[in-house]
Amino acid sequence: MNNWTKILGILLICMMHAVSSRAQEAYTDTIRNRMGADSIYVKVVRDTVWMDKSEPILPSDVIVSKPYGRFDRSILNFRFIPKGKWIGGVTFSYINYESDDSRLLFSLFEDFDCNLRTLSVKPFVGYAIKNNIIIGLKFGYNHTNGRLDNISLQYDDIDFSLKDMKYTEDSYSYAFFHRSYVGLDADRRFGLFNETSIGYNRGTSRFARIYNNELKSTEASMHEITLGINPGMSVFIMENVSAEVSFGVAGFKYRIEKQTNELGETGRLRNSGANFKINILNINIGVTACF
Description:
By secondary structure, the chain is mainly beta. It has one helix at residues 2-23; strands at 26-31, 40-46, 50-52, 62-63, 77-78, 86-98, 109-130, 133-155, 158-183, 190-211, 214-236, 241-248, 250-261, 266-275, 279-290. The protein has one domain (84-290): Porin (Beta Barrel), CATH 2.40.160. It has 1 helix and 15 strands, in the order H-E-E-E-E-E-E-E-E-E-E-E-E-E-E-E.
């Protein structure tokens, strides 16, 4: 009897060892990722319960960003502009304002007649130092032409009028910019970006008006330092060509002007300011090539 007990004990120990070895056997299996692909392999260990012993493997086009503090919003940032690529393009901005379009807004004024035109062209070039991170240089030309033919106000004891006033300005700008993209889809077609730039502007302006039937004019040369934040959206319309639109939401400027009138008298003007709102005079539409 004792011999049978020993034999059964030995067989039981061998069976337990075989089951334990089988339970710890690792093998590969497939799971479906959020992109719908079935080609992601993970290590799984079979034990009392099935447990995933590895981190999920994301597609190579997804840029993993380190969360700030305790916040991880799990936003997928797809690679939009690969590291090592060059981009180049040009943006345009054109505004034409007519007083006839704002009769209701300026209903208190009588015989209000004015016109304002602004044209801006800005070519740029940049290099991707990281995936979706661009640094580069931007150049620009801006032309403004304004005319006030007549404006008059009569309200209670207030009575004044202005007429025959003209203003022109031509300026050139040079800026260094940093642009950060967020890819919205795996096909690298849609993306958002934020552009921060610091620049220097220089140019000339001329203000003229008729006073006592005489022409009065003031010419000025200006130097300006600007800091701007311009978010926007980009869409690839071809394999390496995208269309984009951006607008200014915040900015700071410091400006110095030297003025000279028709009599040769001179003066200086310094002003600075900041704005934190959408600037309708800084809406740009452009085309960008990636190569």
